[in-house]
Design a protein that fits this description.
It holds the Pfam family SRP_SPB. The chain is α/β, with parallel strands linked by helices. It has 26 helices and eight strands. It has four domains: 86 residues, SRP54, nucleotide-binding domain (Four Helix Bundle (Hemerythrin (Met), subunit A), Up-down Bundle), CATH 1.20.120.140; 184 residues, P-loop containing nucleotide triphosphate hydrolases (Rossmann fold, 3-Layer(aba) Sandwich), CATH 3.40.50; 134 residues, 434 Repressor (Amino-terminal Domain) (Orthogonal Bundle), CATH 1.10.260.30; 36 residues, no CATH class. The longest helix is centred in the last third of the chain and has 19 residues. The structure holds guanosine-5'-triphosphate.
Length: 482
């Protein structure tokens, strides 16, 4: 994901300024030039970049800074605030509520943006949260749309309504909504047509559909790879239907992402989810501050805990898929973690939420090898006894004869078993340093950041001026968030 490169660009620019002997105007200018280049390379609109840099410059001018405030920290804080501002339109999206009144959500977007897939992901996500969702196919334009949504719906076990014969999308949408209202579904998702290009006929159809169905929320779905075109596209949809939220898809690919994120600027509507793969669980809630924290290399531990906790699978294998990272880290927990990671997304993506861990456990660009390694370890663990899997310190239990038995049983060489045990030790050690229990029970984001401070890599801590610096930065961020 090229957004990761944006993060690297910004982090590198900040590090360079932190290493400069004095944080004078020249160091600041170089740093901000680098940050601008990173943002423009990521397809963020020129106007937004210019405004952000202007704001950073004016808020970090030594003449306006309160006495005693370190300029480097002020720059870090100002860039954080500007990135948040770019992604945050300052208003909360409509969020569906469970209960008697059904919520109607209409999806709009061009053909191929990932709309149909995202409708199913959105329904499955809300079912995991306890909703009773249903899907309506009001796409009468593309021949295969009906079958595609039906197939996705049945894969995700979501009730579905559509018609092979009716050609009026408004009639289908109204009939589908009525049907599911009677069936007491509380989240009715309407998938609509797309076109390859922005066409008047499409926008007229969206206008008619939204007028007839009066949705509680219209979600604009945009492909992250379309770059700057996202701005105009979002604007055109906003004119035909009251777009209230954005979902950016294909963030797992090589998309630059920054352009699509500028859809926020066009619609002044928040990004609520990002699509991170082709499968039903590949949808992540989008939260601005943790996202920017990750972008700036600060990790997102709360997101990590949520991500694991959010994986409540449809099959009976629940226990197997939800690792309790707050208890003893046994081989069984590691196996659950691997399964969970396979389910929630690419390993690198999940591990990127743990500051410092991704580099230790898996090198960048070698994610495929990492997946293969995980599979190998899982095969090995399948040949282990329950006692071995649940033992708190398996390396002490795994004698040579036990290793030989497991290697034979799994058909893997002895060194693979030994390597797997070493890997377990390494991950256990890395996780033991993270206050996951505290984070899991903590809903206060400022407190979460404080906890994060304890686990930031030492280099980053120095850049931020040690614990004291981090605390004052958090105070400032907190004051800003109010
Ligand atoms: N990698 C990746 N692929 C995705 C994602 N979301 C959707 N896709 C894929 O993108 C392609 C197009 O998705 P659709 O859901 O058919 O697109 P659509 O916008 O509904 O298209 P129309 O129904 O023709 O308007 C499919 O191959 C999806 O599997 C995502 O987040 N990541």
């Amino acid at each position: 994901m090229v957004l990761a490169q944006l993060g690297e660009g910004i982090t590198a620019a900040l590090s360079r300024m932190c290493r400069a002997t004095v944080a004078d105007d020249a160091a600041l200018t170089t740093c901000l030039d680098d940050v601008s280049r990173a943002l423009l390379r990521a397809d963020v609109r020129f106007e937004s970049v210019r405004a952000a840099i202007h704001n950073v410059k004016s808020t970090t001018n030594p003449s306006t800074l309160p006495p005693g405030v370190d300029r480097r920290r002020a720059v870090h804080k100002a860039i954080f605030a500007e990135l948040c501002h770019m992604l945050d339109p300052g208003k909360l999206p409509f969020t569906p509520t469970k209960g008697n009144k059904p919520n109607v959500v209409m999806f709009v977007g061009l053909q191929g943006s990932g709309k149909t897939t995202t409708c199913a992901k959105h329904a499955a996500y809300h079912r995991r949260k306890g909703f009773a969702p249903a899907l309506v196919c009001a796409d009468t334009f593309r021949a295969g749309a009906f079958d595609q949504l039906k197939q996705n719906a049945s894969k995700a076990k979501i009730p579905f309504y559509g018609s092979y014969t009716e050609s009026d999308p408004v009639k289908i949408a109204m009939k589908g909504i009525d049907t599911f209202k009677n069936e007491r579904c509380d989240l009715i998702i309407v998938d609509t047509s797309g076109r390859h290009r922005q066409e008047d006929a499409l926008f007229e159809e969206m206008r008619q559909l939204s007028e007839a169905t009066k949705p509680d929320l219209v979600i604009f779905v945009v492909d992250a790879s379309i770059g700057q075109a996202a701005f105009d596209q979002a604007l055109a949809f906003k004119k035909s239907a009251p777009v209230g939220a954005v979902i950016v898809t294909k963030m797992d690919g090589h998309a630059k992402g920054g352009g699509a994120l500028s859809a926020v600027a066009a619609t002044r509507s928040p990004v609520i989810f990002i699509g991170t793969g082709e499968h039903i669980p590949d949808l992540e809630p989008f939260d601005v501050k943790p996202f920017v924290s990750r972008l700036m290399g600060m990790g997102d531990l709360r997101g990590l805990v949520d991500k694991f906790n959010d994986v409540v699978p449809d099959d009976e294998d629940n226990d197997e898929l939800v690792p309790d990272l707050t208890g003893d880290f046994t081989l069984k927990t590691m196996r659950q973690m691997f399964k969970s990671v396979q389910r929630v997304g690419p390993l690198g993506q999940v591990l990127s939420m743990i500051p410092g861990l991704s580099a230790r456990f898996m090198e960048k660009g070698k994610e495929k090898e990492g997946q293969a390694k995980m599979k190998r370890y899982m095969t090995i663990m399948a040949s282990m006894t329950r006692k071995e899997l649940e033992f708190t310190n398996p390396s002490t239990l795994m004698t040579e004869s036990r290793i030989v038995r497991v290697a034979r049983g799994s058909g893997r060489p002895l060194r693979d078993v030994a390597e797997m045990l070493e890997e377990h030790k390494r991950i256990a050690k890395a996780l033991s340093k993270l206050p996951l229990k505290k984070l899991a029970n903590n809903n206060n984001s400022r407190e979460t950041l404080k906890v994060l401070g304890n686990v930031l890599p030492p280099g980053m801590m120095n850049h931020l001026g040690g614990m004291h610096g981090l605390q004052s930065m958090m105070k400032q961020m907190g004051a800003q968030g109010k």
